[in-house]
Amino acid sequence: MLELRHLSKSYANARPVLANLSCRFEAGEFIAIMGDSGVGKSTLLNLIAGLDTPDAGESQPILVDGIAMSSLDDAAATRLRRSRMGFIFQAFHVLPHLTLLQNVALPLLLNGLPQERAASMLEAVGLGGRGGDFPQQLSGGEMQRVAIARALVHKPALVLADEPTGNLDPDTAHSILQLLRAEIKANGSCAIMVTHSLAAAEMADRTMILTKSGLQNATNFAQNTATFS
Ligand SMILES: Nc1ncnc2c1ncn2[C@@H]1O[C@H](COP(=O)(O)OP(=O)(O)O)[C@@H](O)[C@H]1O
Ligand SMILES: [Mg+2]
Fold first, then answer.
1. Helix (H, G, I), strand (E, B), or coil: what is residue 108?
2. Model's pTM, two decimal places?
3. pLDDT tens-digit series, residues 34-45
4. What whole-number distance in Å separates Cα of residue 98 and Cα of residue 135?
5. For ligand 1, which residues put their CB under 6 angstroms from it?
6. pLDDT tens digits, 55-68
7. Is the C-alpha dihedral spanning 223, 219, 19, 52 positive or negative?
8. Is the separation of the CB atoms in 104 and 121 below 8 Å?
């Protein structure tokens, strides 16, 4: 459902961040990506999201359901993002002038879908009674749960999550990841979750490690954990 082909990214006057990544991610897969700070994990998610542009070279470095992101104009890329993707990024983009329920319902509204699922998603992240509240009344962890509910509400085919449990206590993190996992499996979606948490990575179907030399399956996870402890 997502294919990377010789994906590379460099910023001006710096060594390449990502060099020649090739990888496939299938529908229904929950993937964790780990790696040192600054190695390019967020850059990778931004590229997949179409929020940043890969280096020229490979003409079709990112394919979503066989469609090359590079072949889409801005409007078409926006439509693809809006209908097929869900984002749980560190910058939450929870809109301050909308209530929590309105925030979660936004992807449904933008896609012309019925609004009912917004309330049940808010409930699922433990904020069922808070739909009428505004974001400024929330803690960081609550804000993150709103962002997660909103990212999943329209059953996106591809969920991109950048340290989704970074602001959550371990119990809440576990229940949120159970929800994420259940949604992925129920909807046949693919989720790519960047995390520093071994407990979070253990909830995924497989873990990959991003290093300077590329993106590799963590085949011997126990051995790799030493790097992150
Ligand atoms: N917009 C940008 N301009 C220049 N350099 C950037 C930009 N965004 C990220 N970088 C650099 O790219 C590298 C990877 O960053 P990032 O993807 O945020 O790493 P990670 O998420 O793995 O911690 C870092 O060296 C960072 O400084
Ligand atoms: Mg990052």
1. helix
2. 0.91
3. 999 999 999 999
4. 8
5. 11, 17, 35, 37-43
6. 988 889 999 999 99
7. negative
8. yes
